[in-house]
Amino acid sequence: MLDTIWFILIAVLWIGYLFLEGFDLGIGILLRALGRTDKERRLMINTIGPVWDGNEVWLLTAGGATFAAFPKWYASLFSTLYLPLTLVLVALIFRAVAFEYRGKGVSETWRNFWDWALMLGSLVAAGGVGAMLALSTTGLPINANGDRAEGPIVGAILYGLLGAAAVIGFAVAQGLAFLSLKTEGEIRVRARAWLKKGILPLAAPAAVWAILLGIKTADVVGLLLVVVAAAALVFAFMMARAEQEMKTFLGLAGFLVAGVSSIFVSAYPVVLPSTIDPAFNLTVENASSSPYTLAVMTGVAAFGVPLVLAYQAWTYWVFRKRLHVDHLPELHDFPAQVLSGTASGKR
């Protein structure tokens, strides 16, 4: 029973991560394309500046929960996908450094470098997470010990690319919806126009992923959730056309929740399928920690998760106002200021 509860909780953590980190990854991907000027790109970054690092906590928590609750799942998945997950880690590091260092200089070369670092870091991180989740639900060539073995990889590669496209597409759509909610002026107008045209094609890979998995597993509940996700997507599309920004954002959120839920429901009780032999599948029963470990973790989660939710809700409430390029202060090169002050005898 506790192993199933933790499977559900891990699914919830991934939904939380994709929902919260989705729009700030999307804004990072859109940075160079949607932002036409340096001020517009600063505005885009400022919409997520107070929250991006808190959003990444959900990724760390999802990974940590998998390690503690299902160590065999964690070991097989992370060792088999060691190289792509290392690339995701490097991308997240570059992304974090770009957030902090972009404003430390005023030269165009400096800012362009960190803009590209932020864009590419967001793109690789979103694609890598999507590929990992897709392969976790559709299968990897693992043997009876959960180790990587020789086996068919073409199907795994295609599913991985589908998962990468799904998360990138959803992140871009949600990023556009978030920018239309959080900004005023040209960026808002441009984000709404792009979302009207792109919401359906951007969400299409995620819909295909959920449908394929539901058909593969023949899970009725999973397929019903796919229908719910499709309805939420149609609602989001209609609201985007009507320029109802909050309803569009909520429609995309409903699409995400129903779509990811359908993927996990269809996969249950298998946490990592083997493409070599179904007998080698890792399930919630054979991959979980001891009942005592799960019981202790449940108690900690019962206390910690509501606390995190309350804190993040408060953060978003505090930074709920719309932003405009006119709100941005002029930037000054810090070293130049220091030199100027020193030359004039100021201390």
TrEMBL record:
GO terms for molecular function: electron transfer activity; metal ion binding; oxidoreductase activity, acting on diphenols and related substances as donors, oxygen as acceptor. The keyword Transmembrane applies. It is a multi-pass membrane protein. It is an enzyme of class 1 (oxidoreductase). GO terms for cellular component: cytochrome complex; plasma membrane. Its EC number is 1.10.3.-. It comes from the Bacteria. It holds the Pfam family Cyt_bd_oxida_II. Its main location: membrane. One of its GO terms (biological process) is aerobic electron transport chain. The chain crosses the membrane at residues 6-35, 56-75, 81-101, 113-136, 156-179, 199-215, 221-240, 252-272, 292-314. NCBIfam families: cydB. PANTHER family: CYTOCHROME BD-I UBIQUINOL OXIDASE SUBUNIT 2 (PTHR43141:SF5), CYTOCHROME BD2 SUBUNIT II (PTHR43141). This is Cytochrome d ubiquinol oxidase subunit II. It comes from Falsarthrobacter nasiphocae.
